[in-house]
Design brief:
Layout lengths: L1 H15 L20 H15 L5 H4 L5 H13 L1
Helix pairs in contact: 1-2, 1-4
């Protein structure tokens, strides 16, 4: 689902104010992209709006990378 990956990267870039080209599936939200807890909360809400699905807080705390978020969103969309 390359479309999901690209859309997640676009939302991450917009919310974390970074370039899409600097984001990979292996990028870690906090270590690589400099996201703090507030930024992660905003990101979760933006992804919910983009994909029309819920990102559960307990699940979001366990998602460390962009690729992990893509996998999570794909699972939520398939449910």
């Amino acid at each position: 689902m390359a479309d999901v990956t690209q859309r997640v990267i676009q939302v991450v870039a917009r919310e974390l104010r970074t370039s899409e080209s600097s984001i990979t599936s292996a990028s870690k939200f906090q270590e690589d992209l400099g996201a703090d807890s507030l930024a992660l909360t905003r990101l979760g809400m933006a992804l919910e709006t983009e994909f029309g699905c819920t990102v559960l807080d307990d699940d979001a705390e366990l998602i460390v990378t962009v690729g992990g978020m893509v996998t999570y969103i794909e699972g939520r969309l398939a449910a």
